[in-house]
Amino acid sequence: MSTSSGSRSTPTLVPAASAPDGGGAGSPPAAAPTAPATTAPPVAAEPPPPEPSFAAFREVPRTGVIFVTTEARRRGFDPVATDWCNLGQGMPEADALPGAPARHEAVVIDPADQEYAPVAGIGELREAIASLYNRLFRRGMPSQYTADNVAISGGGRAALTRVAAALGNINLGHFLPDYTAYEELLSVFRLFSPIPILLESERGYAFSAADLRREILGRGMAAVLLSNPSNPTGKVIGGDELAEWIATARELDCSLILDEFYSHYVWRPDLASQGGISTAARYVEDVDRDPVVILDGLTKNWRYPGWRVTWTVGPKKIIEAITSAGSFLDGGGSRPLQRAAIGLLEPEATLAETRAIRAEFGKKRQKLLDGLRDVGFTVDLPPEGTFYVWASAQHLPPSISDGQSFFRAALDRKVITVPGEFFDVNPGKRRAGRALEAATRFRRHLRFSFGPPMARLEVALERIRELVADAARQG
Ligand SMILES: Cc1ncc(COP(=O)(O)O)c(C=O)c1O
Questions:
Q1: What are the two backbone dihedrals, phi and then psi, of residue 271, each rounded to the nearest 5 degrees?
Q2: The pTM is what?
C-alpha cells in the first residue's frame, strides 16, 4: 500500500470517509482534541488524519459487486433500505416462491456437530451430493459418483480458491468476459499462467468445441476455467455441445473447471426440458478419469447464499488434491449447516425448487429484458441462463452511453447496476495498453440482475425509463 505521508497515523475504527468533519456520530479519531465545555467558541475543524497504511499489505482491489455496493453506500444505500433497487446483486431472492419446497428456517445443532467438520466435508453430505448427481443426471451409466468424488467448501469462492491452489505449473485458459472474482483468484496463485480468451459479442459469445480444441493446442492449455451458465453474459454451453467439449477435454487431457453456480437458471428451451438443469455431469463417462471438475452449491441454485455450503465434484484424485489445499486454506466449512443441507438435496425437492425458480425467474427475465430494450439498451444475447441481463448502453443518450456514466446516473435514482468493465477479467493487470483497450469493449455494457423480487424490478425499470427520458431531453 502506498503511504500518502511519510509518517504513520494511528489506525482508528472510524473510517476517514464516514467522518468527513473529523467527528460525526461515531467516536472521534484518536488524535482529535477534546471539545471543552459548551460556552467555548467553535474550534476550526481539524483536517481528518491521513488514512492508516501498512507496509506489509498490498491494496486488494474490490471486486465489481463490492465496488458498486460501496459506491451505493456512499449515497445512502443500506441493504435493508426499501427505497433502493439493487440490480447489482449477485444473489437470488431468498424468500418463499410458489411451488418451491418450504424454506428451511431453523437449524438444530447436534452436540457432535460442535466439532470441526472434516476438510472434505461430512460423509453424509458428500454421499447425498454424489447420489443427487447420479440420480438426476447419470441413471443407467456404468460409472457413478461416490462420496470420494465430492469435497464440500464454505462458499463458492472458497471452493474456487481450493481448486486454484491445487493447480500445477500450467497454462490456464479463462474467458473474457467472466465472473469478476476470477481476476484476483487467478493472480494470487503464481504457479499457473492465466491465458485470456476473448469471446465475441457479435457471435453471441459462442465458443464451439472446435474453438476449444484450437485454443488448447495453440496455447498449450492444460486447464480451462469458466462459469457455465456464464456470469455475466448468460451464455450456456449445453447439450451436445457440452458433450463435445468434454470429449475434447478427455482426448487432449485438458481439465475443464466448470463453475455451475447458475445451472438451475436455464432459459434455452432445449436445455430447460432436461429438468431445467444444465450440467456437465450428464456427459462425463468415467467419473475418475474424465478431467471434469464441477463447482456448485446452495448459493444460487437452492437460494441459500448465506449458508456457505458448496461443493466440488470431480475425479477422486483431484478431490484429494483440493482437500489438501483446503486443509491449509480454510480448514473446512460449517458442520451444522452441512448436516442441515442434506435434507435440501433430495432429488424431488431439488426438482421442485428448480421448477419454482423457472416459473418466477422466467417472468422476471422477460420483464427486465423487455424493459431494458424498450428504453434503448442493446442485448447481444438474451440470457440463456443465469439471472442477469448483459446489455449495452451504446445507443442511449451520450451522457449515459457507457457503463460507468449510466451506473452513476442510476445511483442518483437509487438503482444499482454493475458496469461491464468489471467482467473484463485481467489477472495481475498483465494485459495493458492497446490490448486492454480493445478488450474493454465491455465499457459500454452493464450487468442487470433479476435476482430481486418482481416488484423491485418494476420500480427499477420505471426509474430507468425516467432517467433515459431526462437524459434524452437534456441532449
Ligand atoms: C459464477 C459464480 N461462481 C461462483 C460464485 C460464488 O458464490 P459464493 O457466494 O458461494 O462464494 C458466484 C457468486 O456470485 C458466481 O457468480
A1: -85, -35
A2: 0.89
